[in-house]
Every structure is written in structure tokens, then in C-alpha cells.
Amino acid sequence: MTVTTTLTALSMTELAAAIRGREVTAREVIDAHLARIDEVNPTTNSVTVAFPEKARELADAVDAALDRGEDPGVLAGVPFTVKENIDLTWSASTSGWEFLAEAVPAENATMVQRLLDAGAIPVGRGNMPDFGLRWDTVNTLWGRTYNVWDRSRVPGGSSGGDATAVATGMTPLGLGNDYGGSLRLPSYAAGVCALRPSANRIPAPTKASGEPVSLTLQNFAVNGPIARTVEDLDLAFSVMHGADGHDALAITVEHPSTYEGPKKAAVVKDPLGWGVDPQVAAAVDRAAEALRARGWQVDEVEPPMIEDAATLWRRLSVEEMAPAFRPGGLPVPLTEESTKYFLDNADETEPFVDKMDYGMAWARHLIIKGAWEQFQQEYPVVLGPVSTQRMPEVDFDLAGPAATTDLYKAHVLLVTVNFLGLPSVAVPTGMGTDGMPTGVQLIGPRNRDHVALAAAKAVEAELGGLTPVDPVQA
């Protein structure tokens, strides 16, 4: 086994320990991951831009600090990728848009700066759909990201570039965001792990906006890590979370290293009885048995008001994004594909009849959150599918209005989590009979992200991981 292969197979935690223990230099680790990007990225198109010179410069600084006996940080020399809509001062935050190709921010996003302060090193940008609008990863600026297991299937979105980069060993850590499953869905597709934190636990992806932020973005969108192990998610989150004095919504809540509370989980295999693929059902069963093997009580109980939550997520999302599709709504038009997807989805969504109807939706938001708050007093963890279906073929979401509803139904539990602002960890559960990864999500109580992480660690301990892998070739 080559050094490159060995180093790119290690977890973030293992790499940090090896560098800090002087078993390997930060420069060797960065060189290995840059070489891996050169090797496999032409096949997956996960990384839009790599930073070889800057990354090596930062790696040399880490090694020099260690030589002087200084502590360069808990993540000294660890590579990571940064999604195209998260600010990094030496790379444009394009959001997949051609007109933002030169939009280099003046300040790093807080999560990026905190990783830099901990010694971690950005090696490249992760691809995404323009405006982050689709459950796919493709745009006119950077092109399509390919599923690493089957190029005919979508890689998920919108953090598809970072998920596929993590899955193939280009990086042990990717940064993304999640408005409607955009961390968990591509991780499910790639066979890796992701943490969608509780709302407001990690500050916004930019410090420099100064623009109004819609209520759905304030309530549904979060930023978080993608990695190959749950331990790495936990460590990355422990570095990135907390208020920053910029994001007025960001909060600081203690993040315990362990969970000592009741090990009790509700499992929902087929939310609302809308149908579930047999491979998905089997994956949920495996995860439930894994929890039981680790001392958890697991009961088949459906949480309350899932349909109410998911329906309002869809209606509110459409209502607040609609202005972007009107003349002057955005600086440039969205791509034909993203526009078609949105308008088809809007056709399938019940509009608000007036301001009172819209206001009552937000009033009901609190009622539904309260019902889950009460439910999770008895069942701190909810185990269920990321998607009730397998990953669809490329451009399935453009097949017409009915296709958008098919995806919405498959993702009903996925978007419920966004509506509620809850923490959720996506974790793989072995391979399906179709040659694609299977996986589940473990949903924790609000602001108790460590509970969801603890349950995910239990599943991972029994079922193991699937990556890194070499991507399938064209």
C-alpha cells in the first residue's frame, strides 16, 4: 500500500493524532490528499478548485510550529474542503453561479476560521447546484458531480461535491449546509456520515451579507460537517459551534463529549405509510438491531405531525423562494434546469391564500415543534430513513411536476427535521442489493446534538463504514 493510499484512508481524528505525534508531517498529509484529488477528481468532478500552493504553505507552517514545540491546534494539518457557498478569503464563493466566479470574500466564514485556528487546512472547494436549489449537484460554471458508486444515479445535493470528495479519500472532512437535506442526502448517496446540527449552532456561511434573510433560511438552514466517521463529525462540530458576535441567530450551547441519558429510540421505517423501498426498510432494521446490541431500547413508534411539518416546509420554501423567479428577483436568472425544477415543484404545492394563511403557518410551526419536544422527552432519538427510496437516475427531478412530489414524499422525514430545526446524523448501514450504499438518520432533541451523535456512534460501531473507495469509471 502506498503512502498516498494509506494517508488518504485515515480519518480526520487519526490524521490529527499522527501529525501531532510526529509520525507524519502535515506536508506529507497535504501532498497525499492533493495527489488523490489529481487522481480521482477528473472522474467525480467533486472539487471545483484545489489550493495546492496555499495548502502546502499552511502545512509547512504547521510543521514549523511543531518543530518549535508549539501547539498548532487540535486539527493540525488535517485537510478539508469548503462548499462553494461558504466564505473562504482566497477563493470565490460562487454558489455555482458564473456571475460570482470572481466574488472572493473579505472574511472567512466563522466555521472556516475556527478550523483554520485549530490547524486544519483547506485543500479545495466542493461542488453544488446553482443556488443550492436541487437535490442534485450540477451547474453551468463547474458542471456535474458524479455519484461515486453509479454514474447514472444522482449524487444528491446540494453538498454533493463535498460528500463525494470525502467518500473517495480526497479529504477526510467537508463543509456543507442543509436547508432540505443537503448534508444528509448526498452523504446517504456516497456512503459517508453527516451531521445536520440543531438550528443556529454553527454561524452563517458568510459574515459580509448585510442583506435580509428569509424566515425559512433563518429557521430551516444550517451548516455542518461531512466525514467518514461519526467521531470525526463530533470533533469537527466541537471546533465549529458557538456564537461568533456576527450572526445574530447563532447561540452557544454546551456540547458534552458523552451521553449518559436514557438510551431509548423510536423507529419509523415507512413515515406516514407512503411507501418504502425494501432495501431502505432493511437498512432501518439493521440500524435498529445495532442500537439494541449497544443497549438501546428501540420501539416502533411514529413521531407526531410529520405530514404537517413536511407540508409546511414545502409550502413555506416555495412561498419564500418564489420572488427569486420573478423579474429582478436575482442578479441573473437561474439555470433552465433549476427554474424548471422549482416551477414544477411550485405547481404541486398549495399556495397561501393570503397573509393570514401565511402567518398561521408560522404559528403552527411552534405547535409542531412543541409536539416533537414532548415526544422526545420519552424517545430522545428517532431512527428513520434519510430517503424512503434509492437514489434516482440523473435528471429524474426534471421529469415533470409529479416527479418533484415523488421526491418530496421520499424525503418527508428528511425535510421534517429541517422544519423542526433538530440535529440529525446520517450514517451508512452497509451496501444494498443494487450496489449502492444504504443508510439511516438518527434525529436528536433540539440543542442536544450529542444525543444524535451518540446513537449514530452505536450504529456505526456495529455496522462499520464503507469508504474511502475508488469511484466507478465512466
Can you walk through the features of this model?
The model has no long low-confidence stretch (mean pLDDT 96). The protein is an alpha/beta fold and 474 residues long. α3 (26-44) runs antiparallel to α4 (52-67). The chain is 41% helix and 13% strand. The chain has a single domain (3-463), classed as Amidase signature (AS) domain (Amidase signature (AS) enzymes, Alpha-Beta Complex).
Number of contiguous helices = 16
Strand proportion, as a percent range, falls in 5-15%
CATH class: Alpha Beta
* Span of the ends, CA to CA: 25 Å
How many domains, as an integer?
1
Q: What is the H/E string?
A: HHHEHEHEEEHEHEHEHEHEHHHEHHEEH
Looking at CATH, the homologous superfamily is Amidase signature (AS) domain
Number of strands: 13
CATH architecture field: Alpha-Beta Complex
CATH fold title? Amidase signature (AS) enzymes
Helix content: 40-55%
Secondary-structure map:
Blueprint: H1 3-9, H2 12-20, H3 26-44, E1 47-50, H4 52-67, E2 79-83, H5 110-117, E3 121-126, E4 138-139, E5 143-144, H6 160-167, E6 173-178, H7 184-190, E7 193-196, H8 215-220, E8 222-227, H9 230-240, E9 264-267, H10 278-293, E10 297-300, H11 306-321, H12 336-347, H13 355-378, E11 381-385, H14 401-410, H15 412-420, E12 424-431, E13 437-443, H16 449-463
Parallel strand pairs: 2-3, 2-6, 9-10, 9-11
Antiparallel strand pairs: 1-3, 4-5, 6-8, 7-8, 7-12, 11-13, 12-13
Helix pairs in contact: 1-3, 3-4, 6-7, 9-16, 10-16, 11-13, 11-15, 12-14
